[in-house]
Amino acid sequence: MRLHDTATGSLVQTAGSSPDSTAPDSTAKSAGPFTIYVCGVTPYDAAHLGHGFTFMTFDLIRRRVADLGRQVKLVRNVTDVDEPLYAKAAELGVHFLDLARSEERRMQSALGRLGLIPPEVEPRASEHMDDIVAMISSLLAAGAAYELDGDVYFDVSATPDYGRVSGYSHGLMTKFARMRGGDPDRAGKRQPLDFLLWRRIGDEDDPARWETPLGPGRPGWHIECSVMADRHLGTGIDVHGGGADLIFPHHECEQAQSTAAGRVPFVKCWVHVGPMLMGGEKMSKSLGNLVFVDRLLEDHSPAAIRLALMRYHYRSGGEWRPEFIEDGEELSRELRKAAAGMSREEAAARPAGPLLREIREALDDNLDAPRCVRLLESCLSRPNAGDTHAADVVRIADLLGIESALA
Ligand SMILES: [Zn+2]
C-alpha cells in the first residue's frame, strides 16, 4: 500500500512488503503491529462531516492494512487540555473536564455508528500530565527548550528539521503562526517561531492548572500529542496524520520536539486529509456551516454516508454535495442485491475475484476511494455475475466499512 507522505511530497510504501499490491504482508509477523496515530478532536462540540471524512480516511487505511494480514494499533487522542474547551466550559458554567467527557462520548457514539472501528487506545491529554512534564524537562535539560517569565518555549534552532513536515518557508510559517494561535511577536523569545511547551498559570482558581515541578500551569497543545504518541506507539510510527490544517503548526512542532527528545525516527509517513467545504468554505464552527454526523445518521444509513464521502479523494476533500447520500443509498441497495445472501464465512472461503482485486489495487494506490465507488457502480450493473462476484461484494463491504449496506 502506498500513501502520500506530506514531509517528502512523495508516495511511500507503507503496509505490504511488495510493490505487488495484492501480495500479503510477509513482514507481518516479525514487524509487530502497524501503528497509526490520528490527532483527535478537542471535545467541545459534536462531530461534523469534516471530522467524519478525516477519521473515515484513517479507518479505510486500517481496514486495508488488516486485509493485508497485518495487525493494526490505532491511537486517536482526545485533546481535553486545550484553550477552546475552557472557554466553552466557562460559557456553560461547567468544569472543562465534565464537558470534555460528555462531548467525547457523543463523538465516539457518532463515529461508531458511522462504522469506524474503535481505536485501540483513546488517550486523554489530561491523564498524561506526568509524561508531559517529563518530556518538557528532558528538552530543558538538553538545551532544546528555555524558560521565559515562567513559561517554557521550544527552541526551534535545536533541530535542523523545523520546517521539514510542511516544507513551508520561514516567512509563511511566521504568518501562519500569527494566524493560528502562535505568538511570533512576543518579546524575549530566541526565535519568533519558538513555540509554547508550558504556560504558567498564576490564578489559583483556574480549573486548567496543574501543580508540577515546572511550576503551576498547563501544557501547550503540540507537546500533548508528542507525548501520547510516544507513550502508546513509541518511535517509527507508520502513519501519523489528521486534517490538513494540522500540518502547521501542530505537526511541524510535534516533529521538532519529538526529534529533539530523541524519538527518532518519529514518523514514517505523514498523511493529511483535505477539508469538506460548504459554499466554498471549510466547514467550521465560526462560519456556522457545519453538517453534523449524528444529524445525518437520523435520516440516512451509515453506508450511504460513507459512500458519499468516498466520492472525494482524501487529499483534496471538496464541496459537500448532499445528493451523494441518495446515490449512496441506491448503491447500497444494489450491493445488497449483488451479495445475494452470501454469508461472510462462505465469502471468506472463496478466492478473490476481479472486483475485489481491483478495489484492493485502488486502495493501495494512495487510497483512491473515488475509484472504489466507480468500480462498484460499474460492476453492479452486470446481472447474474455469479458466486465469486457475490463473495467479492461481501468482502468489499467489510474492507470499505459499509457492512451496514448488506444488513
Ligand atoms: Zn495532535
Number of domains: 2
Q: What is the CATH topology descriptor of the largest domain?
A: Rossmann fold
> CATH-wise, what's the superfamily of the largest domain?
HUPs
Percent helix:
40-55%
Give the CATH level 1 class of the largest domain. Answer: Alpha Beta
In this structure, how is the largest beta sheet organized? 5 strands, antiparallel
Structure, explained:
The protein is of the alpha/beta class and 407 residues long. It folds into 2 domains: 276 residues, Rossmann fold (3-Layer(aba) Sandwich), CATH 3.40.50.620; 84 residues, Four Helix Bundle (Hemerythrin (Met), subunit A) (Up-down Bundle). 43% of the residues lie in helices and 14% in strands. It has a 5-stranded antiparallel sheet with strand order 5-6-7-9-8. Helix 3 crosses helix 4 and helix 7 packs across helix 8. The site of zinc ion has 3 residues, from loops.
Topology:
Blueprint: E1 2-5, E2 10-13, H1 28-31, E3 34-38, H2 49-67, E4 72-76, H3 83-92, H4 96-113, H5 129-141, E5 145-148, E6 151-154, H6 170-179, E7 195-200, E8 210-212, E9 215-219, H7 221-233, E10 239-243, H8 247-260, E11 270-273, E12 276-278, E13 281-282, H9 293-299, H10 302-309, E14 318-319, H11 323-339, H12 344-348, H13 354-364, H14 369-380, H15 387-400
Parallel strand pairs: 3-4, 3-10, 10-11, 12-14
Antiparallel strand pairs: 1-2, 5-6, 6-7, 7-9, 8-9, 12-13
Helix pairs in contact: 3-4, 5-7, 7-8, 10-11, 13-14, 13-15
The structure holds zinc ion.
